[in-house]
Design a protein that fits this description.
Oligomer: single chain
Number of helices: 9
Helix content: 25-40%
Bound molecules: zinc ion
CATH superfamily of the largest domain: Ribonuclease Z/Hydroxyacylglutathione hydrolase-like
Order of helices and strands: EEEEEHEHHHEEEEHHEEHEHHEE
Structural class: alpha/beta
Strand order of the largest sheet: 1-2-3-4-5-6-7
Strand content: 15-25%
Radius of gyration: 19 Å
Number of domains: 2
CATH class of the largest domain: Alpha Beta
Largest sheet: 7 strands, mixed
CATH architecture of the largest domain: 4-Layer Sandwich
C-alpha cells in the first residue's frame, strides 16, 4: 500500500497513520509507521527516530536494508538496536521468563548509524524532549513543523488512556515548557493529528493539567502509606486500565515515575518496612 503524504508547509510532509505518524522532508523520514510499503515512491535516505519505542521505528529495519541511514538519540540506541532491553528494564534487569518476553516483546531492532545530537542538514534541528523516555528527541523542520513523538499526548489519547507512559513526569513538564518556547507553526505528535500552533498550545496545557491531576490523586492516595504494588494497583484502577500484563508493566514504570516525582518535590517519603517499599504523603 502506497501512502500519500500531506504537505504541511514548504518541503515538510506528513504520512498520517492511525498507528504512528511519520514526517518527510526531502528524503528524510521522521519516525516510521508499521508498513514500509507506505513510502514506496518516496525515496528514504535517512530515518530520524524520536525514541526507542518500537512503534516509532517498525519500518526502519526494512528501510535500512534498502539503504537508509538510521539516526537515533544517543540514550535510545540500546533500545532501538535491541527492544528486548525494555523487558529487562521493566523487570528490574532480572531475567524475564520466555512467556513474558513473548507477550510483551514486539518486533526487532535496527542498527543505528548516527546520533541525533550530531545530526546536521536539511534544515532539521533535533530538539531534546526527555521525560517519555530518557533520550526522547523531537525534530523541528526548517518549515516550522515540530515532530514531537510521544512528548505530547493530544486530548483524545487522555480519554482513552488516563495514565500514558512516562518515565519522569517532571522532565515531561520541562519538555512541554520547552516546546512552548519554540518557534513552530505546526505540531505533529507520534499518535494523533497534525495541529497548528494555537491548537498545539491547548493540547500541551491539557497534557500538563492531566499530569497534575494524576499526581494530586496519587498524593491523596498515599495519605495512608501504600506499598509500591498497592500504589500501582490504585492508580491503574483510577485510570481505568485493563487488567492485563502489558498494561500492568507499563503502569509499573509510570506510577514509579509519579511516586519519585512526589519524593523529589518533598511531598512524599519512601521507606522499607517488613521488607516492602512504602510511600507516604508529606
Ligand atoms: Zn513511546
Amino acid at each position: 500500500m502506497t501512502g500519500q503524504p500531506r504537505r504541511l508547509a514548504g518541503d515538510t510532509y506528513v504520512f498520517e497513520a492511525s498507528t504512528t505518524n511519520s514526517g518527510y522532508v526531502s528524503g528524510v523520514l521522521i519516525d516510521t509507521g508499521p508498513e514500509p510499503s507506505v513510502y514506496d515512491g518516496h525515496p528514504v535516505m535517512n530515518v530520524l527516530i524520536t525514541h526507542g519505542h518500537q512503534d516509532h521505528f517498525s519500518s526502519a529495519p526494512a528501510l535500512r536494508l534498502a539503504g537508509a541511514r538510521i539516526t537515533a538519540p544517543r540514550e535510545e540506541v540500546a533500545l532501538v538496536e535491541n527492544p528486548e532491553v525494555h523487558i529487562r528494564g521493566m523487570f528490574s534487569w532480572a531475567r524475564p521468563s520466555d512467556e513474558m518476553v513473548n507477550k510483551l516483546f514486539h518486533g526487532g531492532g535496527v542498527k543505528v548509524d548516527a546520533y541525533a545530537d550530531e545530526w546536521r542538514g536539511y534544515g532539521i534541528d533535533p530538539i531534546p524532549l526527555p521525560g517519555h523516555t530518557l533520550g526522547h528527541t523531537g525534530y523541528l523542520t526548517g518549515d516550522g513543523v515540530l515532530f514531537t513523538g510521544d512528548a505530547v499526548y493530544e486530548m483524545p489519547i487522555w480519554s482513552r488512556h488516563r495514565l500514558p507512559y512516562a518515565i519522569d513526569p517532571g522532565l515531561v513538564r520541562s519538555s512541554l515548557s520547552l516546546i512552548e518556547g519554540l518557534d513552530f507553526a505546526w505540531m505533529v505528535p507520534g499518535h494523533g493529528v497534525a495541529v497548528d500552533r494555537d491548537e498545539a498550545f491547548e493540547h500541551i496545557a491539557y497534557h500538563r493539567d492531566q499530569m497534575d491531576l494524576m499526581s494530586e490523586r496519587l498524593h491523596e492516595m498515599i495519605a495512608e502509606p501504600l506499598t509500591t504494588e498497592q500504589a500501582i494497583a490504585a492508580m491503574s484502577s483510577l485510570a481505568g486500565l485493563s487488567d492485563n500484563s502489558a498494561q500492568y508493566w507499563l503502569a509499573v514504570t509510570t506510577v514509579k515515575g509519579y511516586l519519585s516525582d512526589l519524593l523529589r518535590q518533598g511531598r512524599a517519603e519512601f521507606f522499607v518496612r517488613e521488607h516492602a517499599g512504602w510511600w507516604h504523603a508529606l
